[in-house]
Write a structure and sequence with these properties.
- Six copies of one chain form a homohexamer.
- Chain A is built from six helices and nine strands.
- By secondary structure, the first copy, chain A, is of the alpha/beta class.
- In chain A, the strands form two sheets. Chain A has a seven-stranded mixed β-sheet, sandwiched between helices. The first copy, chain A, has a two-stranded antiparallel ribbon with strand order 8-9.
- The first copy, chain A, is globular and about 50 Å long.
- Chain A starts with a strand and ends with a strand.
- Chains A and B meet through helix 1, strand 6, strand 7, strand 8 and strand 9 of A and helix 1, strand 6, strand 7, strand 8 and strand 9 of B.
- Strand 8 of chain E pairs parallel with strand 6 of chain F, so a sheet runs across the interface.
Chain lengths: ~240, ~240, ~240, ~240, ~240, ~240
């Protein structure tokens, strides 16, 4: 079992890009933590209290029986996330506290300044978390930690076509993803501009699934080369080592 | 267990690029077939009979107890391999005969004309093998077959730096690879120009291994996007589907 | 108005990849010719007579009132298309006969040998068609012709993610595309393996449409750099010059 | 008609890279605003007053009868432009004030720190300008605004070869570009190191023009995929939507 | 001193793309051979006898005092160059006969079928020339030979922007290049469509020269990684080894 | 002779990535300065005094008789290097003080925040150093300076495969590199996690050497296109101009 930390700029970014995979991780018994860097507000139809309820409901929708997803908020200011030492260290503290094996962070080309800043913060925090002889705020006394993998998910506001290194088969969890998106009423249904997003996400998942002969899939990018271990059955991308 | 077909222009190409992985496949119980498109001769210090003995010895060195590797030769003319329908169909026949799940073929940029031709033949043969309502020469009555994966290995005579999609951890099989290369006395030790090749291969394997935190590794390229299934333990690159 | 020649390996390739755009071209008054390099048969559930009826019906479905699409067949042998001078010249003859301005050909990475061969034939035929002092078979006495644009469409049997240079907005023609695909009963509905293809195509069109803020889109690749003319209204990609 | 905002680090960057296109935009009736992030001084042979006169003259040279180009200065410190929230918001205010449809910003690889900082500021400002429920300094009471397009122009101090997504045909405006460059006497003619720049620019324009069969052209890069609408005449890259 | 073999599809391709570098090679004392794969005819305004005179004059224009350039013709049929074993061996014979160190061949993306075929022939011939135990037609009894370098020059009929690995400084030889182009009266001045080509080439040379701080330059691509030797003075790209 | 400035985040980064080339530069008579941005401490088994001794010993090991390498430290705080104007200007001062011709800086994709920040600082400092009418701290009264080349070396903590623009032949200096690494006892031998690093580096050097037919090599990346001057002997990558 791995400890998987999904870093998101605003509550709903992780669900849009990775909702199926998050549900899959939980269903398979992995320990999943959603880290919201901000509370995501203000937005045209939202407010902090509503957004908090919605994001909690979304996390519940993606959880598995007996394996609830943890959701925490770092408290940076929405729309003004900046790449600083303090922000890096705060994320490094979380990496240590949850003893993360795998980080998921937003793809590094985007139109949203918060996304770009979150990615840079999290990339650096991965390294900060492994430094010896130093504590990190919020590390809960946990020791230095190197997250073996850092992967990028596509929650981009740029109109690009994702070129994934691999696609995760999320076929068994499309209903949960849809439910998680539905939880964000203030963001999607309440906003005429966003109303069709569940349908667009379903089409996107179907398209990327079709690339791997699956009913649904979510695209992932890796800068680092993948290491593969071969067994008698399937070949593996080891989580550790 | 998968049926893995490693297509090579000349006996020794597969061992140089993929010797560790071939041994690993066999050790893990996969059925491995080495398909030599030519007999590899003439060469400065070789002859057909010697080369045949050497390549048989190399295959034996990579085999596992109770799981011998099969080596077959297609009989195209060395140095004059050309991309033709007949050659495609002959390879398609082998794909059907061994019911291949995975093909390994040389990378598609190279300086050796035989390598480039073999790659094109094998790429096309993958599709030919799945055609309905038609037999292929040498298919031994086996039905149409789609090899789920086609991967490229780097046996290139061009001085390029391989950019792999993934690296296979071959740490447990470096001695076997070295033994397989030693088997080709006429190609390496007998030829002053090639004498250091075992050492260079070991360095290359160590370098690519270092990219995945392993003691040795062999680089692989995939044009198709990788599909990943997530389980509670490691994540998998499924062989089928 | 432009003369647009869409070169396809087998009847249905053009519809799958470019059905919406073809209908759009016709609706806007362009002269569209579909060139099938082969009759596409045999297939598991088809035969030449059935396929011919289906492809005629598909062309009709994409046609516009008063502007019927022309469909012609070159007569190369399905599954054995090879890149030859004769095939190049035959296509060059068609380019001259229809005085083509724009060619659409399959993308140059694919798993299907016929597709790869068709692309190479058509790329070369573009140049052959402009040669001075020589006739081409089937040119109907028309003079040498340079098709100003050659674009690639994605009808690939490789599981890759298309990286388009641009996406054509086909929002107004999705129903026609679906009708054209329905016309190929022997290829899609009759074949259990292909039954979901209309749904998958719709998802793909929706995904690529979402990249350009449209309800549907089809991805196109250009090797040549695009030239843009600026006017007071929209900016243009000129068809000529 | 579109509102086009061309963001430049120092007065003359826009003219060098995009002088022909700017003149073309104005001639076609678009509303063009040149935003200088700094006054560009000190330089070896310039001073603020001279530079201001020169940049005003250059803007006049690129203007069209009845459609003068607007030039404004943001007042950041030359040579010390840094990517900050304040700078982002100041540019966002301009985007709102001019209700920009299209942004042009420097390409994102460069040797000049000011250029790199301007690009990051403007990329983020594009998003800041569309945020709801917040004012931006200098927005003149104009509402939130999403600039539909952000394109990169090549004013790079790195010796790279531009790889454009498209080239704008500027054939009809080369004389105006040359006049605009001539206006910067302190930067080009007065400086022996820069004296040949008009000739080099003309050669560059001719080279890029030759890529699109035009007498002159300026290269543009887009991260986002282009959307194309097809009409009976030319095909369009829509400004809106 | 190196033996440099410049392989061209038709007389004038080498001059257009590499005229300055060819003159430079000769001036520096290298042995230069221009290999024309065809006679280049028919063309709209040319004929074989005229073209032969023109190409001889062009070679003379690029020669240096005491170091004349050799020009030979392989005799393949213009417009119908095809990638065959026989053509490969014929070029391999030339490589041996001139004991080539460096090959220059056309870039591997092009619109002209002859160019694409020539490139594939020459790439393969490089390897054929080094094969042991075999003669090649026209090798004049010279032994097997490995040309240490194969570089691509840009004589492409595709409207792409060359992305060179390096640019050769040809500043001292622009007049010779212009003279060589002038020699091809039947191809350029006689043909209204090509009349401006000398001016366009000069602009292109100036543009690529500007990328390396030189007055003129010609772009070159290398698939193989460059090896650099460092000395007390300049760093070198060795011709041998 | 050139002045070569090798900018490193922490003492040992330059030796790991470029130790052979540094020794080669010194042996060939170039003036080499190693600029350590930080003192590299704390580390698990090091302390500032020990690290200082080790780095001095390493520089000595790479020096040539009569041409000692200079090593200086900028004094930024290890683990907290940030891209600021002050840091840029401090490096610009060093560039002026040593009148640098060539800068080597870490590759721009990395996992270590200090490396990424150092690269950005040094890239910008290159430009700052050439600004007119301004002093830089530590410039020792030396005038404005443009370093003609900026190259990237691979000291990356990301598990990527370097794709070099060129490889420097370091065959004659592998023993010195090994000696320089041995000097860092606190970093490598004392730390069980790093103990095999000399062997891994030797394998890497051998692999990259094999790409250029040399016994050892170190990979280098250049964003800017390389300019080549051709002479009668080898071709050169000029240091100046």
């Amino acid at each position: 079992m791995a400890s998987i930390l999904v870093v998101g700029p605003h509550p709903d970014d992780q669900e849009l890009a990775l909702g199926g995979a998050i549900a899959l991780f939980a269903a398979q018994g992995h320990r999943v933590t959603l880290l919201d860097m901000t509370d995501g507000e203000p937005t045209p139809f939202g407010d902090p209290a509503t957004r908090a309820k919605e994001s909690a409901a979304a996390a519940a929708a993606l959880s598995a029986p007996g394996n609830p997803i943890t959701r925490i908020q770092l408290g940076l200011k929405n729309r003004e996330v900046v790449h600083t030492l303090a922000a890096r260290h705060a994320v490094a503290g979380v990496i240590r506290a949850v003893a993360a094996d795998i980080l998921f962070v937003p793809y590094f080309e985007d139109a949203h300044p918060d996304h770009l800043a979150v990615t840079r913060i999290a990339e650096d925090a991965r390294f900060d978390a492994k430094l010896s002889k130093v504590n990190m705020p919020g590390d809960q006394g946990q020791p230095a930690r190197w997250a073996n993998r850092l992967y990028y998910y596509f929650a981009t506001h740029l109109k690009i076509v994702a070129q994934p290194t691999f696609v995760i088969d999320t076929s068994a969890h499309t209903a949960q993803k849809r439910a998680a998106l539905s939880a964000y009423y203030s963001q999607f249904e309440a906003n005429p501009a966003n109303r069709g997003i569940a349908e667009r996400m379903a089409a996107q998942d179907l398209y990327f699934g079709s690339r791997i002969n699956a009913a649904a899939g979510e695209p992932i990018f890796s800068r680092e080369v993948l290491g593969v271990r071969v067994t008698g059955h399937d070949w593996t991308l080891p989580i550790t080592g």
